[in-house]
Model the fold of this input.
Amino acid sequence: VWPFKYSMTEVQAALGAKLIDRLDELNSQRRDRGHRFINALSEYPELVFQKSVEDRENTFHLLPARYDGTAYGKNNDDLIKLLSSKYEIKVIVQYYPLNRYPLFAKMGFAEADCPNTDFFFDNMISFPFHHWMSEVDFEYMISSTKLALNELRK
Done:
C-alpha cells in the first residue's frame, strides 16, 4: 500500500561520491546566497523566512517563505501568479502536509490538529533555489520579487 523505492543507479552513486568532496564548499555557497536573498527582502515584512537557530547552520536546501499580504488584500496565490506571469519566475507551494495527501487520507490520517503547519502551508511559497543558478538569474529573482511585492502593496 505504501509506495517506496530507494535504489539509485551506479552513475548517481558515483556522482554523489564526487560531490561529497565538495560538500562544505557547496553548502557555504548556498548559505551565502540564502542569506543574501533574505537580507535583500528584509524591507518586506509580509514575506517571512524561517529563522535559523543561532548555533546551527542552515544549508538552504530549499528557500521557502510565508507570504502574508492580508494588509493589502492579497494572498500567496497572487504572488505566485504575478511572479510567474509577469517575471517568469516559477515559485511553488511545496511539500504538502502529509495529512492532506489523498493516500494518507485514504489510510485514515486526514484528521490532524496542526494549526501552525496548516497556517504555514496555506500561505507558503518556495523560491527556485539551486546551486547552478547563474548570478544574473539570482539577481533577477531578487529584483523581480521586490517589484512584485511592491506591486501587490498597491
In short: The beta strands are 47-49, 63-67, 124-127.
